[in-house]
Design a protein that fits this description.
The structure holds 2 protein chains of 2 kinds. Chain A is mostly beta strands. Chain A contains no helices and 11 strands. Classes of the chains: A mainly beta, B mainly beta.
Amino acid sequence: SQQGEEDPQALSIQEGENATMNCSYKTSINNLQWYRQNSGRGLVHLILIRSNEREKHSGRLRVTLDTSKKSSSLLITASRAADTASYFCATNFGNEKLTFGTGTRLTIIP
Amino acid sequence: DVKVTQSSRYLVKRTGEKVFLECVQDMDHENMFWYRQDPGLGLRLIYFSYDVKMKEKGDIPEGYSVSREKKERFSLILESASTNQTSMYLCASQTPRTGSSYEQYFGPGTRLTVT
């Protein structure tokens, strides 16, 4: 069963703008991870935030986690054409498995 | 860098054929996974292996089997391919060592079409 649900399903923005996508989940987690998938390719791990963290940064990525609302957001600042991809959140419960959401398709318009 | 490779990027098979999808990782990871990805459904776990010859069913194991004879190689088998198994298949590996965050490393995927 799917745990994470991303919102919006699709997002188009102009190059240089910021992109925000959200993920909601249903039960307590150990950590939440974000992955990127370029068209027709495998997923690449972007960033991880643990349940006791509220915010994390990595380059142009900023992730927040609100465990009381069971939600996370991924912000990509100063977007580039190369950021065009699908983005997935994945929840981890402290064991080996990840449960992936359905993804947000991000299109950056040059 | 972790490298996960899959034997084919694209595969076309006929209904009823036996299909083998191969995955190899080079980082000595204990855990390996097979997912299928379909539009609107995200990634769904088919099977998981946590050691050689060890396996565990995922959310949608019906119609599939797996084999892990060596640590670096995890194979997905479609015993008798059907059209509803047309999908993108993704393999991933992971290390469960103490303190691991359980992030997964993915191969490029195999797009399988069953006609």
